[in-house]
Specification:
It contains six helices and nine strands; from the N terminus they run βββββαααββββααα. The protein is of the alpha+beta class. It folds into two domains: 75 residues, Beta Barrel (OB fold (Dihydrolipoamide Acetyltransferase, E2P)), CATH 2.40.50; 179 residues, Recombination protein O, C-terminal domain (de novo design (two linked rop proteins), Up-down Bundle), CATH 1.20.1440.120. Strands 1-2-3-5-4 form a five-stranded mixed β-barrel. A four-stranded mixed β-sheet has the order 6-8-7-9, with helices on one face. Strand 7 and strand 8 form a beta hairpin. The longest helix is centred in the C-terminal third of the chain and has 19 residues. It starts with a strand and ends in a 5-residue tail after the last helix. About 2% of the residues have low confidence.
């Protein structure tokens, strides 16, 4: 029986001289492990479709044990990511994250991820990563750290860990009054204004600048195609990336080797 899915290759393991196992991220079945016979041959029709980060339409056959790639039609190539070691490290972190957090070969409950498509989200993240730190006449540069922060916070939300950043959880104010501040409570996933903040609170808290709070709200609440469209820099960017990293790693309760490797580079 044949099955057709749009998906992105987020993992690849070599088999002998010509074949490989690939991990395909899909909306319908989560992570699918499939065998791509002959995919490493220079004249193989699967050469590009089975490469890491390839976005393709896969036609798969399945026996009792595993899937096999019968054919594949490329939709978009992210091959250029491999030309930059820093971008490749960050893309590998994204791939490790979705592989760990997405169930394998199980029908996905659309309500669990809201209306966002995980495949579309991952493709947008890779596209934004490709264009990061490139300045054009009509758009300022978007750095790798900004892309990483947006990925971590939006993906946390898709996994069911969306923080409530609409307003202070106590008084309901959207912005602080009379020069006050807003604080983010990562353990609770909530905002509290300086007027309502309990000074004896012993949990972790992060004082947010207006720019940081605005960026976080955009990442969480904007349509999927706009969640990466934030332009910040300097200390605001550094504080945001530290915050989103801690929040994501705490919620997933693990570390990622690709993230550790990415952080060894001077960006």
């Amino acid at each position: 029986m044949l099955h057709t899915y749009d998906g992105i290759v987020v993992g690849r393991r070599e088999i002998g001289e010509n074949s490989c196992f690939i991990d395909i991220l899909t909306d319908e079945r989560g992570i699918i492990e499939a065998t791509a016979h002959g995919a490493k041959k220079i004249n193989s029709s699967l050469l590009s479709s089975a490469s890491l980060f390839a976005y393709s339409t896969f036609c798969l056959s399945k026996n009792k044990l595993r899937y096999t790639v019968n054919s594949a039609k490329p939709k978009y190539s992210f091959h250029a990511i491999g030309e930059d070691i820093v971008k490749l490290a960050l893309a590998s972190y994204f791939a490790q994250a979705v592989k760990f957090c997405t169930t394998s070969e199980q029908r996905q409950d659309a309500s669990a991820q809201g209306s966002d498509s995980i495949v579309r989200f991952f493709a947008i993240a890779l596209f934004e990563l490709l264009g990061a730190a490139e300045r054009t006449d009509d758009a300022p540069a978007r750095t790798l750290e900004t892309v990483r922060a947006a990925f971590e916070l939006r993906y946390s939300s898709m996994l069911g860990y969306r923080p409530d950043l609409t307003a202070c959880f106590n008084c309901g104010c959207y912005e602080p009054q009379d020069g006050g501040s807003m604080f983010f409570l990562p353990d609770r996933g909530e905002l509290v204004c300086s007027e309502c903040f309990n000074r004896e609170y012993d949990g972790e808290c992060e004082k947010l600048s207006p720019e940081t709070l605005s960026a976080m709200r955009n990442i969480i609440y904007a349509p999927l195609e706009r969640c990466f469209k934030i332009n910040i820099g300097g200390e605001t960017e550094r504080r945001l990336s530290r915050l989103t990293e801690r929040y994501f790693l705490r919620r997933t309760e693990r570390s990622f080797s690709a993230l550790d490797y990415y952080k060894t580079f001077d960006k």
